[in-house]
């Protein structure tokens, strides 16, 4: 993921990739070769990099369990004005909150790399909502991906559609029979979750194999119509009102990339738009759409979903736990997935 971040900075006319840090020297050298980073600016220790180079913006693309230590370390450094961190936000609920608090304390802009907020299927869907094309939004349905990893995108997007409001409660259940570990974190095989935002909008998510709840990645249901995103065998964005369906133009983009991107791109144009947004926010002082505060809304739903599984009941928010209930259930033997094949 670090390559995708760097590519987007390189494509911005006000940014330069000036240094990198990787605990594996060979990886750092390869990255430096790809982005013309001088040999003297390649480090194994990020703290030495901060002292030697003093970057304005730091991107963090490491496993979730070590996000906090590096985010807080960078936030404390006088030179660092902004941090863009990979998702998922962190490995525990308490850790996610501490990162946001530290960046607030040290006046450092913190964002999380949820670049799909800048994809036209989602921005155009949000425009339709804001213009009242389906009346008042009442329910968001998600049938794409998983709950923790991809959910860092899908639940974040649901929050965007709901006006970036916090949730009031979450109820969920999951299945984890085959081990799936990504970036050091377990990922459930199948998940059902329902939650309600404090503005009355409800959301449901059914993810995993053989969980075809809806015919699209997202369905947005309003009092006067419906918006569908990434329709199975159909258009990328569709508006339904009064029994009539209309295809909405998204310039050939899909939920993963801009469609016509060069074959040698490492990331997507969505990453370029993200970097432009975070630089503009840094200039203006406005809160970014990917801010840590907004990210906590998503993280709270994810960890509350796992806590609902652990409690076997609804979880009312704010969430009053510190750990990751999913990981704790695995460690305690409540969940015992079959080991993955090597």
TrEMBL record:
Record flagged with keyword Coiled coil? no
The record's keywords, sorted A to Z, are:
Oxidoreductase
* Domain of life, per lineage: Archaea
Pfam families registered for this protein in UniProt: GFO_IDH_MocA, GFO_IDH_MocA_C3
Q: Where is the GFO/IDH/MocA-like oxidoreductase domain?
A: 143-228
Q: Which GO terms describe its molecular function?
A: nucleotide binding; oxidoreductase activity
**Segments forming domain Gfo/Idh/MocA-like oxidoreductase N-terminal:** 1-111
Q: Which Gene3D superfamilies match?
A: Dihydrodipicolinate Reductase, domain 2 (3.30.360.10), NAD(P)-binding Rossmann-like Domain (3.40.50.720)
PANTHER family associated with the record: BCDNA.GH03377 (PTHR43818)
- What this protein is called in its record is Gfo/Idh/MocA family oxidoreductase
Which source organism?
A: Natrialba swarupiae
